[in-house]
Structures are given as C-alpha cells and as structure tokens.
Design brief:
heterodimer; A: about 140 residues; 5 helices; about 40% helix; about 25% strand; B: about 240 residues; alpha+beta; 5-stranded mixed sheet; 5 strands
Chain lengths: ~140, ~240
C-alpha cells in the first residue's frame, strides 16, 4: 500500500469515527425525565419547582425496573414504601398508586428530591447532620 | 533446648490461632441492623405482617467460621421464626466464602419463607434488583438491606396487604444537608460503550494518519539518500 493510500484510508476512518460520535450523540439524546414524560401519564407538574408526577398501570417494582433498564441510575434504594432511583440531575421515586392500584412516579430535580425524600435517602445520597422534621431514615450506620 | 521448644510453641500458635475473630463477621453493622428492624417495624404497623431476615455466612478462610445475621420487625437479633413474629415473611440467605486455596467459587443462595397464603421464591425478588451475586459483592450490606426492605413491597404487590404509604418531608431539613456525589453523566453511564467504540474508531484513524505521514516522510527522504555522493561506489581509475 502506498503512503497516499494509507493517508486516504486513515482520513476515511477518521470521518467514520466522527460520524459514529455524532450518531451516538444524536441517537442517545434525552434524559430519564424525558423518558418518563414520554412513557407514562402525567398527573401533575410544576415547572417552577421542576416537579412532576406520573401514573402507570404496572406494579411499582416493574415500573421501577423498566425505568432503570432504560436509564440506568447511578444509585438505587429500595424501601417498603417505594423505589428510589438517583440520576445526575434528577431523583425518580416509584411508589404504589392510590388504593394500591398501579404506580405513581415522582420526578424531582436532585436538590428538591433530596429534601422531599430526605426521610428515606438522607445520609445515603448526601450529607446528613441530624433528623429534620418528619425524619424517618438516617443513612448507612446511622441507626436510630 | 528450651529456646527451641519456645520457638516451636510460637510457630504453632501463629499457625493455628486465627488473626481474625473466631466467627465470620456479620454483614450488617449494629446501626444498620437497628435501622432495618425499624423500617420493618413501620411496615408491620401498616400491613400486620412480621418481616425478618436470617443470613448464614460460612467463611472458610482460615478460622473465621460461621456467623448468623438475623433480625425482624421485633428488633435486631430477634428470631423471625418465633411465634411472636407471625404471620411472617422472612428473607433467608446462605453465603459461603470458600477458602482462598480452594478452586471453588463463593456462593450465595437466597429464598423467601412465608407463612402467608402465597409462596414466594428468589425469582420474585429479582425484579427488585435483589441477586445472589450482590450478596457476594463489596456492598453486601446494602444488598441485604435492599432485599429485606423489598419484602413489604413484595407482599403488597401480591395483594396480601396494603402498600406501605410513602412519607414526604413535612417540614425542612437541616440547612447544611444536600445531595453529594451524583455519579457522573447519565448518558455516559448508559451509552459509555458506544462512545468508547466511536472514540476508538476515531483514535485508530488518527493513529493511522500519523503512521501514513511518517512512512510518507521516510519514503521522501530515501531517494535523496540514494544520490548522495558519498554513497556512490568508488572505483579507482585503471
């Protein structure tokens, strides 16, 4: 192979690489928040606080597993009350629906979600300096 | 002679007295066990079902021995099979850490024992992200807490008891408390392999381009060297 052919092959491979990076970037757009919004039925939302609540017909464990398989969380926590999934900017919580029918999916941004679900995730996913009001949890090794 | 005897005693002592405690360490530290028992007690209040866990750890490394980790809605280190804990749903696991000298791999088996009308099995727990391998990992305590915490949800989803209601923070949390360590980009976590492959193609192309420039450069320099005067064969005039 001549040097010229080497150069042509290399430039072609670089172009393929650039196209591949572009395709991956475009093909994987979105977030867990968008996925939940596209997949489940909106019950209520508040743009100011970036909080949204959705309903699903499936059982909480199945819904949580489905969300986690589509967008793998960085951390997850299981509690008798529900399933807590942590993402870079969002916290998704799946609980039983009203009257035990179906599921409710709560989506909050990270900061608000940490405050809202502090009784469960306080000390696990952030700092913990003592029981807040309505305290229930405490994080690993905290005990009661 | 006395010195030799003492040395022999020291060697025997060092060989046969374990460096670690005489029994395998429990998976949950006392604080976590209390936390878990309290969580189960809350669920029991809602569902009238007693929950518990029994985890046997057989550590075959050295003289670590066997430990039993247990507890229930009635408290840490209580017997979940006691009459006071009925009706009950209990997470049971047997973990064997094989000797480092053995070729056998560590194993964990899990099951759910219930006195309710419905039988559960390990597969029922899989959908909650509970697995045998998780109990053999570094975060075995978290895996155990997740497995046991899933029991009330398992019962509720089977329609045997109402779900445990979720409680939001009713007031404020300490001002200094905030989330930490979010775990990096969601996109890279989910599609990192694709990005890696695409990057690999790109890097390979760049490497190949550099290589082609090097061989082109050396090819250009070769003819110049061929015509150098000093490289020409020297013949004396006849």
């Amino acid at each position: 192979m001549t040097p010229r052919n080497h150069r042509i092959g290399a430039i072609a491979l670089i172009l393929v690489g650039i196209l591949a990076v572009g395709a991956v970037t475009l093909g994987t757009r979105g977030s867990v928040r968008e996925h939940v919004g596209d997949t489940y039925t909106l019950v209520s939302s508040d743009n100011r606080t970036r909080t949204a609540e959705y309903s699903a017909k499936g059982k909480p464990s199945a819904v949580a597993a489905s969300i986690a398989s589509k967008w793998k969380p960085s951390e997850r926590l299981t509690d008798p009350s529900g399933f807590f999934l942590r993402y870079r900017n969002d916290i998704v919580v799946v609980t039983a629906g009203p009257e035990g029918q179906g599921s409710r999916i709560h989506v909050d941004d990270e900061r608000r979600g940490y405050t809202r679900w502090y009784p469960y995730i306080g000390g696990y996913w952030g700092t913990f300096s003592g029981p807040g009001e309505g305290f229930r949890g405490g994080g690993p090794g905290a005990g009661k | 002679m006395r010195r030799i005897f003492l040395a022999a005693v020291v060697i025997v002592f060092a060989l046969f007295v374990p460096a670690r405690p005489a029994s395998a360490l429990p998976i949950l530290d006392p604080g976590d066990a209390v936390e878990l028992a309290n969580t189960l007690a809350d669920a029991t209040e809602e569902q009238d079902v007693c929950y518990g866990w029994v985890v046997k750890v057989d550590d075959q490394n050295g003289f670590s021995g066997t430990s039993v980790d247990r507890g229930s809605s009635l408290g840490p280190d209580t017997d979940p099979f006691a009459p006071a804990c009925t009706p009950s749903v209990v997470f049971v696991a047997d973990i064997i850490y094989t000797s480092e000298l053995s070729e056998a791999v560590d194993t964990a088996t899990i099951r759910v024992l219930s006195t309710l009308a419905v039988d559960f099995d390990a597969n029922d727990l899989k959908k909650f992200g509970v697995s045998e391998s998780a109990l053999l990992g570094d975060n075995d305590d978290r895996a155990l807490m997740a497995a046991v915490s899933a029991l009330p949800a398992l019962v509720a989803e089977a329609g045997l008891a109402p779900p445990v209601p979720v409680e939001e923070t009713t007031g404020t949390i300490p001002a200094a408390d905030r989330p930490t360590g979010a775990g990096g980009s969601d996109r890279l976590r989910n599609y990192g392999a694709l990005y890696f492959l695409a990057g690999l193609v790109l890097a390979s192309g760049a490497g190949w381009l550099i290589y082609s420039l090097v061989i082109a450069s050396s090819a250009r320099s070769r003819p110049v060297r061929a015509v150098r005067f000093t490289d020409l064969p020297h013949h004396d005039d006849p």
